[in-house]
Amino acid sequence: MLPLQTLYDTGFRPCAVAVDAGDNSVPQRRDIPVVTDDQDSLEGLALCTGIPIINLSRDASEAADQVKAYSPDIVFVSCFARKLPAEVLSVPSIGCFNLHPSLLPAYRGPSPIFWQFRDGVSEMGVTLHRMSVHLDGGDIIGQNPVVIPDGVTLRQASVLLAEAGGQLFIDALSRPEQAGLTGCAQREEGASYQGFPSNSDYTFSTDWSAKRVFNFIRATQDQGHVYHCTVDNREFELVEAIGFQDSGEVQADVVGDQLVLPCRPGFVRARFLKV
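Predicted structure:
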């Protein structure tokens, strides 16, 4: 939604907004809105600004026909939940371009923000790249690094990255003719790919720094996960990171439902489930 808002606020009016129709899509009557005028959703923003909405079919040929009906020069993609088929990628005359919330070629895949938090990355970033049949592998058009503050959630980090991504859209479109959409090939050195996280990935090590442990838990704790750890032969299920100090050495301590968790270096204060 935020990149679309940036486009609209800067004077670029998309000819249509495509959303995933899901498995049970039905033909859409454009004269009957199916969403309210709530600008806090992608569909609501499109409705409020008079931009037609396409419920994109899962059938490749039908999806291509849906997009082709608008004769687009460019397709911009942001946070779309599935891979666009080649039939759709070939429709726009200039090409399809995707916003990816990492500094490619690192952290390719569907959940890059999660994995960057898990790896303790503090300077993340967003990449605008040309889409190809290779997932997140197309030519890079532009990149914006984004410093992520300590203690933010995945959603808050996503907002910061989306704002930086919207600016990449504007930068690309503001250059003469197609110069802004001419990119450079990705280098495979430093490339990485991660899939969707499993429950076992919501774990940490006390060998991590306190800052890394704190930021990882804070980023993901609103998803309902618990974080198992063992301290002095006692099992804990952490549910909330409260604070951290990234230097010094302390002994583990329990006060009420809070644990002082020694790390390397520093310590984290976290709330745990009392059994």
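Summary: The mean pLDDT is 89.
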